[in-house]
Specification:
This protein is α+β, with helices and mostly antiparallel strands. It has helices at residues 11-21, 47-54, and strands spanning 37-42, 59-62, 72-74, 80-81. Helix 2 links the parallel strand 1 and strand 2. The chain is flat. The two termini are 23 Å apart.
């Protein structure tokens, strides 16, 4: 996960990294229940990260990190939600 989160730290990022480390990549959207959910990456993306964005495996959330940023994006209903807060 280093390729996506070079400038990011905090509990939600650690939890997200832990999900990937355990191979639990499936999240359910709290709005529509879809499992067609991808992580949102913040910070300065590497070349490899841009490839993942191009494949639709991750959404780029921008370089500005506020600390109140959503963790996931539902590709079915376009809802963005936070892993910790669940909204």
């Amino acid at each position: 996960m280093d390729i996506f989160f070079k400038a990011v730290s905090g509990p939600s990022v650690r939890m997200r990294e832990d999900l990937y480390a355990r191979g639990t990549k499936t999240m359910k959207c709290p709005e529509c229940g879809s499992e067609n959910v991808i992580p949102i990456a913040y910070g300065y993306p590497s070349e490899e990260a841009w490839k993942e964005v191009g494949k639709g495996l991750v959404k780029f959330g921008g370089c500005t990190i506020t600390g109140n940023d959503p963790d996931y994006f539902c590709r079915d209903c376009f809802h963005e939600f936070d892993l910790v807060r669940g909204n």
